[in-house]
């Protein structure tokens, strides 16, 4: 074998060694940990010598070094730039994670969130000095209430799951105010894991309800489970199969007739924003992920923001703080007193995710009522386009059209030796972030794709072509190729079992020779 | 619409490929009565210029903390953030990526979080830290719930020196999750004796270092008392910069540390997003909430990182998860990690010393104002002064003079007449001599 072909075979991961001396692969540069770049005393920030003062720490002082590494600014900038280049991002390509709504993040939103009048304002400044900040929160609340048709909104929850907690606590408070002790919460099997986790955290027993053959809530089964001990139904709509719950009004009526509340997980609001108001579906409470539908950047895991819209029956229980209109402008009710006396109380420090509020409002104002409606339409259109163009090679989990995301199962991989995981890892080598895998749990080997409204038709076509080619390849008996994927990413498959069995959750200084000898 | 790539021709072609006559067909599953024919009653689309102008007008109505002498703290601190921090967190590969579920193409985020976990564990003097929580207050509530799981007990004792927001958030959880949160009286002089309140039902004692009124205390003896009774000590840190000077919670014997990391790399942001910190001992790691990144190797034996121990988490365990948290504060963690990387040991300890020196100078200056007395025997960069009249009115009058004087205790503890003359005052490395002079002079005027 020539040197060249040997290098290529190694580059494809067929050999163990790297094809290069450095271990780098072109623009993929290996980057040591910060701690491995330490030089004692070096710093990337020049601070003045602190003046000598008599310490007021009372002798409760740190003993010994902390162990932080010393780097200069150029090293730090290079470190994080190199790390960034090992990430896939919506800025680099379609990010089709189902139920995650990875859409374009407009840079105007970043600019306005950094205006000193929003970013450099303290939450505990006198209220008279933050009237513009409260106006922004009030304006955002108006948009959210109008888009959902709901009369009230709690802005403070920090993310979707936190919003769920808020909503379920409000339901508990409302039940207690009625003198009722209801202990059961119904959750469809297709729900996000946060739904049962939230219900359980609020002290409810979780009772799963099955899906029917069409991927929707089985209304008969639901009715059979409803009773005087049911506090609420938690339902995602469109659901995590990408399907609209056709019988949602009947579901709402049945839930209400049983004296329970209807919680809607708003993770999939992007499918209907500007076109359908959740209030018109009979929903009592719903969280909205500003980091999904309203495009605040996901930042590799957060921060999010999860405002909760509430029906009249739950509004008075909303967590503090409340922004209200007073005689001298906007006021903040920070305590469960006065008008807010029945509030469940505080759920988060300060007033919520202001930086996300600014970005979300900028997104809403940029789109307007017309643009938001178009968002829902383009998101649904794009998902159905994927469905239509892929169904010849992949197997749709359910018949008919879908909403903003499309669910396939792994029947198309039957007897190929290729799993959903293998298929996803092959997509990585083709330059794509995989779709959501193995969720929802109601179909086998799920592949859930959400293209959002942000993709051009060319982008969708290129994605479709790759998926079709990979499906053909899998069916063509090339299982071994798939088992070795990815070969071209910054890392090949990582050993998750090892990571969990022997957790190494932080860097440790290397043992010295002397320690090793001991 | 500038954010929507599909053209009218694309939409027509796509409808044809799908085989439906109109977009309306794709919404056929929505009950007819719930389908809006027209637009919701909100303004139409606007260009960048118009949106920026409208939002800038709102921003202009706020008094910018950095534009005036500002001494507001109480859990949120105005520090200098190096320019490179905000530049780096805006790299699209960090900003616009999701939770690192596909580790092969998320090594940037994963390595960064592994470094962050290490940095936070080192600062706190703890063995492990997670990849962040929403904020300090929610981290505190989660810490109490974790202590309840570890001890199988249901009574938490919350110090009177714990930030009131943290106390309130924990109390809200207590009511609905079903545990007892015993709130000690507000303790402006840090004289409380919590050890004597511990009994066999106590799961944890929660204290703050430095305390909400600014005091610095060594909780080592309290840790011993907790452990003797089978309870855990939770130490809350709301000013992360203090860890460069003050004895670490780990060195005091803390079992769990909940903190606010905003001081590192993150702006005031009117209160959010901020950065929840969470650290504990290795033996409790499987009871931790939130995401954890761990080291492993790839198929070629190369070092890499993955999300790990996820059998604690909601997407695997559903109703049996340790917490319902999913999205956390990843980008805020990145900002904090970059800021700490820039500071390093030398910069971080100097920053802490500088903060302390500024606060000492300010305390002396304010205590010399007639009628003003310093409440604290000890403090780091924030302390409490007693004024001869209610602090809220004084703060309001100083705000009219464009001085943000601090946080009146009455804002945090309404309805406590004994606290109404108390004012919490913070200084950081951003505080100048001129700021201090302006504050002392204006305060003397307002009080005279």
Q: What CATH architecture of the domain at 108-364 in chain A would you give?
A: 3-Layer(aba) Sandwich
The interface involving the most residues is between: A-B, 211 and 213 residues
Overall pLDDT level of chain B:
97
SSE succession of chain A:
HHHHHEHEHEHEHEEEHEEHEEHEEHHHH
Alpha-carbon distance between the two ends of chain A: 47 Å
Question: What kind of assembly state do the chains in view correspond to?
Answer: heterodimer
The tally of domains of chain B stands at: 2
Order of helices and strands of chain B: HHHHHHEHEHEEHEHEEEEHHEEHEHEH
The main sheet of chain A comes to:
7 strands, mixed
CATH superfamily of the domain at 108-364 in chain A: Type I PLP-dependent aspartate aminotransferase-like (Major domain)
Care to count the β-strands of chain B?
A: 13
Radius of gyration of chain A over alpha carbons?
26 Å
* CATH architectural group of the largest domain in chain B: 3-Layer(aba) Sandwich
Based on DSSP secondary structure assignment, what is the total number of beta strands of chain A? Answer: 13
Description of the structure:
The complex is a heterodimer of chains A (518) and B (448). Chain A is α/β, with parallel strands linked by helices. Chain A has a domain of 257 residues: 3-Layer(aba) Sandwich (Aspartate Aminotransferase, domain 2). Helix content of chain A is 35%, strand content 10%. In chain A, the strands form three sheets. Chain A has a seven-stranded mixed β-sheet with strand order 1-7-6-5-4-2-3, with helices on both faces. A four-stranded antiparallel β-sheet of chain A has the order 10-11-13-12. In chain A, strands 8-9 form a two-stranded antiparallel sheet. Chain A starts with a helix and ends with a helix. With 448 residues, chain B is of the alpha/beta class. Chain B has two domains: 116 residues, Aspartate Aminotransferase, domain 1, CATH 3.90.1150; 257 residues, 3-Layer(aba) Sandwich (Aspartate Aminotransferase, domain 2), CATH 3.40.640.10. Chain B is 38% helix and 13% strand. Chain B contains 15 helices and 13 strands. In chain B, the strands form three sheets. Chain B has a seven-stranded mixed β-sheet with strand order 1-7-6-5-4-2-3. In chain B, helix 8 links the parallel strand 2 and strand 3. In chain B, helix 4 packs antiparallel against helix 12, helix 6 packs parallel to helix 12 and helix 7 packs across helix 8. Chain B is globular, with a radius of gyration of 25 Å.
